[in-house]
Structures are given as structure tokens and as C-alpha cells.
Amino acid sequence: MQYIDPHIHMVSRTTDDYQRMAQAGCVAVTEPAFWAGFDRSSPQGFYDYFRQLTEFEPRRAASYGIRHFTWLCINPKEADDPAFAREVIELIPSFLDRPNVLGIGEIGLNKNTKNELIILEEQIALASKYNQLILVHTPHLEDKLKGTRLIMDAIKRNGNIDPGRVLIDHVEEHTVQEVLDRGYWAGMTLYPDSKCTPQRAADIIEMYGSERIWINSAGDWGHSDPLAVPKARLEMTRRGHNRATIEKISFENPRTFLSQCDKFRI
Q1: Under CATH, which architecture does the 3-258 domain have?
Q2: How far apart are the C-alpha atoms of 188 and 199, rounded to whole Å?
């Protein structure tokens, strides 16, 4: 079965990962802009990163038959300095017409600080101005529920954003229902040690259904698994879920959400 990994940081993965993903059935990935493992020292560093995401990485993926799409932003971990963040935000509009750019992401909160919230609101406004899809990063562990609510409230305050064009990622058992109830899409991130395991993701599907939910690996330079999506599909098969449900959360739902951008074609 074909699948889409709608959140994975391929610039931090080896070419062998592309080969293994293609062999497992991956036909497309989307890569949100995020932290590089260190704080960049200048906006020029982000400019070069955006070029990598829009120029080099699509070619590397294509050599394995995988379509590569991306999202652009300044990530929440580097957004606590508003002056610096605004210099980065000024770079983004010039990249929005690139053929693989789907929208603004992954914006959100890291430690739920006042400055992070200010920059979040400014990037929501950027998405609204240019009619872009939004992909949201929610905080970790004990900050997740509070941060998720702060993010959704900020989007609502903007007044021009359709929740159906926003994906709230890294949902867990204590946040997924509220995200869905407010009309947003929900992403479950499959990490070996944190966020959701394939087993927990299957539990969530069994508890909350398969509408407006997808699964992703968010594979990056840390402890993560670029084959997490096919492994979660195997777990659901083991539990007796039918093929239609498995395809829905790993292919049809991502395709439906992402196809709201005319550039997404597979």
C-alpha cells in the first residue's frame, strides 16, 4: 500500500532513508521548517535553509520516486527573540511561490512564552495574508495541553483562518478530542520514546475514529524512525483494522488535507 509521510525532516536523514521509505511504499513527504539542533546565528542561515528545502531536497527525493513538499516559517524554538524572528519572517513571502511550498509551518509554541506567542500570531497573520495552509507544532509533555489551547485561541483570534485548513500536530490522548472538536485536523507523531508509539496511535484511532487524523514520523536528527508510518500500519493490521481505515489515516487523509493547496499533486 502507498503512504504519505506528511511530517518528516528529510534534510537530517540519509539518502538510504529515502530508499527504504520508497521500498516501503512512500510516494510523498512534506517537510516543515524546524530547528536544526542548534540556534542559527543570522537570518541568512534561514535563507540558505529555505533554499535547501525548495531546491535541493525535492531533487534528492525525486531520485527515489518520492515527491517532496515543504512548509516555511521560523520555528518556535528560535522565535523567542522577536526582532530576529521578524527578519526571518520577511524572507518567507519570496519563497511562497516555489512549486513545492504548501504553506506556513511548523509554527506554534515551545515553552509557551510571551514572545513565542507574539511571533506565532504574526506568522498566523502571514498565512492569512497569503491564503496559506498552516501546520502547527504543539509543545512537549506537561506544556502540551496549555500550549495547544493557546495556539488554537490565537488562530481563532485572527478571525480569517478556516480551522479545516490547519493541522495541529503532535496530538496525544489528552489533546486530540479538543483539537477535533474545534474543527482542526490532528496529526499523531510516532516517536520511539515520546509522543505516540504505533500502539498508542492505534489506541487513539480506536477511541476517536479516523476523521481528520493522520500519522507521521517527524523523523529528524534525533531518536526517530523514518519508517514509523508503515510500522503503525502493520500494528493496525495486527489488531484487525480493515484496509480502508489503514489507508485513510496514512494516505487518504493526508492527501485530502494537503490537496487544499493546488501544488500538492501525487
Answers
A1: Alpha-Beta Barrel (3.20)
A2: 12
pLDDT tens-place string over residues 112-162:
999 999 999 999 999 999 999 999 999 988 899 999 999 999 999 999 999
Cell of 8: 518528516
pLDDT, tens digit, for every residue of 76-115? Answer: 999 999 999 999 999 999 999 999 999 999 999 999 999 9
Amino acid at 255: R
In the chain, what's the furthest Cα-to-Cα distance?
Answer: 52
Give the residues across from 215 on adjacent strands: 188
What are 25-58's pLDDT values in tens digits?
A: 999 999 999 999 999 999 999 999 999 999 999 9
Query: What string of DSSP letters covers 135-183?
Result: EEEPPPGGGHHHHHHHHHHHHHHHS---GGGEEE-S--TTTHHHHHHTT
Domain borders along the chain are 3-258
What's the predicted TM-score (pTM) here?
A: 0.97
CB 132 within 8 A of CB 104: yes
